[in-house]
Amino acid sequence: MAEYNRVSECVGLITLRNPPVNALSAAVRQGIVDTVQRALSDPNVKSVVICGQNGIFCGGADIKEFGSNMTGPPLIPMIHAIESANKPVVAAIEGSALGGGLELALGCHYRIAHSKARLGLPEVSLGLLPAAGGSQRLPRLIGVPAALNLITTGRHVTAAEALQLGIVDQVTDHNTVAAAVKFALSVAGRSLDPRRISTHPCPQQPDLDALFEEVMQKVRQSARGAIAPIACVQAVRAAATLPYAQGMERERELMATLFTSGQARALQYCFFAERAVGRWRMPSGARWDTSKPRPVHKAAVIGLGTMGRGITVALAQTGLSVIAVETQEKQLMEAKQAISGMLERGAKRRGVAPALDGVIYSQNIQAVADVDLVIEAVFEDIALKTKVFQQLSAVCKPGTLLCTNTSALDVDQLASETPNPELVVGMHFFAPAHVMKLLEVVYGPRSSPQAVATAMQLGKKMGKASVAVGNCRGFVGNRMLKPYIEEAFFLLEEGATPELVDQALEEFGFPMGVFRMSDLSGLDVGWRVRKGDGLVEPGTASGRSARIRQGRRYSPLGDLLCEEGHFGQKTGRGWYQYDKPGSRVARFDPWLHSFLGAYRAQHGLVARRIDHQEVLERCLYALINEGFHILDDGIAAGPEDIDVIYVSGYGWPRHRGGPMFYANMVGLAKVLERLEHYQQLHPEVPHLQPSSLLRRLVASGSPPIHKWGEAIKKLHSQL
Ligand SMILES: C[C@H](O)[C@H](C)C(=O)SCCNC(=O)CCNC(=O)[C@H](O)C(C)(C)COP(=O)([O-])OP(=O)([O-])OC[C@H]1O[C@@H](n2cnc3c(N)ncnc32)[C@H](O)[C@@H]1OP(=O)([O-])[O-]
């Protein structure tokens, strides 16, 4: 819907009305066509202003319409009608002008933006490209290099940067619509030809071929198999080399290849999934819209190791005052320096003042007596964490939320160490905590909905993708990672190499394969956990029995490397070798390969040829299968929760939607059939045993992923 008013006697004011972001739905497009026509044919109107209601210009095309037959007037002629108008049209940009919203503004003759506005063409993040003339008009307006950067990254720019780039003509701190109306009055009657961007030639660029070659190479590397960024480069190239009409034809062709692609569906699924996880619900029935969060004005972090420092920075960057506690004086001083440095660098990147005064450092846990929420981040040891929780229960004011950053310990066991277990939740950050987007908010059976609501709200305030999950070993992310890693170890036993496994996973789109990731995080981390689970046995026993522990197949390969002191990058040797401890470039390690050969011989294993297909099926389907167990256990409320966790915290390629979305794309029946195939070959591997939920979903006709929630409820009610 678009509303029309005449203001200041001779300015036609068109207001887009489609809450919450004035997306260009069919009705809005029709409204724009009608109101523009009205303004242009009204003799009293000398110029036109287009704005959006509720302080937001336009969030672009209506993504919700992409899955259905598009109706209503198309965008391109609608924008062309504005550009070719004989009266000046001014866009008054508040909030956001993104995608089709910015393309609409680029069709206008002038653009006035509020200083807090954000502008961009983020279509690439939805697996698309700017297909309403944006890929042809923006390069003509701001030049090829700047346009290439905005369109291939999809990044949003501030109004200040948009002015500097030449996207907008004026920036105001005051009422944008009023400023635009005043501006529109001032340009009435002026010649508009110089303002019709599509008629401009693209600014000449020396050595165009070299520029596009270089950008295409960079884009291919960072895309890791995503197709939209490449199409974006090709579309801008058309703008730089073809007349506008031909360029628009090229834009249309390229968009046609993307619009129905699996990758576009995956990326749009991620867009909505990231918004859906904010609408959390617990098995108890408690939900996001019925649970009121407690206000958090002051927070505290206990333990300033690597995680504690990152968490302190993430909290301080929200403007909260933070008490940072570390009992060891030397550790406290080092932490203070590190945290200040991170805050200064972060502030510089964001162009704001560093919140150094917002953090108070103390060696004394008494200092947290009046905070609203505490995050404990001490060493991953249950006895130490229990002691801290007992101290906090004694020190903190009534009602203070006690959160633990544990990545594997039992949140409910810690809760039972306090007089108010309802105030205890897990807040599982990922290293580096001030950078990684993901936050698992872990509720135990006694955690109150208010505690969950408060942690989720604080997560959103820190800019995290916060996902509420139930308490269980490894929560969601690490629980699914276990079978994924174990399968990779088994593949090595059977003849694969770290290089082969990693290559298959990196070609799939992961930034790092499982073995390069293991070298980065340190082999000793997993070794410590396996020791804690009583799985590690000393000595070099051989034969099948040495590879069966706690009644299931077990590969001691990682343990044996650790016994050699090969912890990965930190020791200069792990699954790969490195020039020196701490260096990051993984190189082929002949020692490791002969060690694998000797290991197989010792255990009577005969290496066989393993291809990428098998690597992907065994590693990814084992992980996905655990995802179905998690859904069946109610630990995750829906597939979106699992997919957001993996995309924002475990490097699952976004253009593949997430593990559960991927399973849906591959076909649940196929995943089931392959799991059954491998389970028959490896009966001693329980995690290959297909989840009963997967079986039941297949038996009920493999409903589409957006129907899984309902299907799971129905299937549970039949149990
Ligand atoms: C031809 C053309 O070339 C092409 C092809 C295109 O134009 S493709 C489209 C390109 N446009 C984009 O990529 C911009 C996408 N949107 C955003 O980046 C953000 O939304 C925002 C604008 C910066 C606001 O952030 P927010 O934090 O204030 O609110 P929110 O929670 O994100 O969003 C609030 C609610 O609005 C919904 N929503 C947001 N943008 C939408 C859109 N473009 N279409 C449909 N729904 C949208 C969203 O799902 C949520 O719904 P619900 O969860 O409440 O039910």
UniProtKB/TrEMBL annotation:
GO biological process, one term: fatty acid beta-oxidation
Listed Pfam families: 3HCDH (PF00725), 3HCDH_N (PF02737), ECH_1 (PF00378)
Pathway: Lipid metabolism; fatty acid beta-oxidation
Organism: Champsocephalus gunnari
GO molecular function, one term: (3S)-3-hydroxyacyl-CoA dehydrogenase (NAD+) activity
Coiled coil spans: none
Name of the protein in question: Peroxisomal bifunctional enzyme
Compartments reported by the entry: Peroxisome
Record-listed E.C. numbers: 1.1.1.35, 4.2.1.17, 5.3.3.8
SUPFAM superfamilies referenced in this protein's UniProt entry, alphabetically: 6-phosphogluconate dehydrogenase C-terminal domain-like, ClpP/crotonase, NAD(P)-binding Rossmann-fold domains
Keywords tagged on the record: Fatty acid metabolism, Isomerase, Lipid metabolism, Lyase, Multifunctional enzyme, NAD, Oxidoreductase, Peroxisome
Organism taxonomic ancestry: Eukaryota, Metazoa, Chordata, Craniata, Vertebrata
Record field: catalytic activity: (3S)-hydroxyhexanoyl-CoA = (2E)-hexenoyl-CoA + H2O; a (3S)-3-hydroxyacyl-CoA + NAD(+) = a 3-oxoacyl-CoA + NADH + H(+); (3S)-hydroxydecanoyl-CoA + NAD(+) = 3-oxodecanoyl-CoA + NADH + H(+); (3S)-hydroxyhexadecanedioyl-CoA + NAD(+) = 3-oxohexadecanedioyl-CoA + NADH + H(+)
Entries under InterPro entries matching the protein: 3-OHacyl-CoA_DH_CS, 3-OHacyl-CoA_DH_NAD-bd, 3HC_DH_C, 6-PGluconate_DH-like_C_sf, ClpP/crotonase-like_dom_sf, Enoyl-CoA_hyd/isom_CS, Enoyl-CoA_hydra/iso, NAD(P)-bd_dom_sf
Domain 3-hydroxyacyl-CoA dehydrogenase C-terminal: 474-578, 615-701
Keyword Isomerase listed: yes
Assembly and binders: Monomer.
Record's GO cellular component terms: peroxisome
Domain 3-hydroxyacyl-CoA dehydrogenase NAD binding, first and last residues per copy: 298-471
Predominant localisation class: other
Domain of life per record: Eukaryota
Keyword Lipid metabolism in record: yes
Family membership noted in the UniProt record: In the C-terminal section; belongs to the 3-hydroxyacyl-CoA dehydrogenase family. In the N-terminal section; belongs to the enoyl-CoA hydratase/isomerase family.
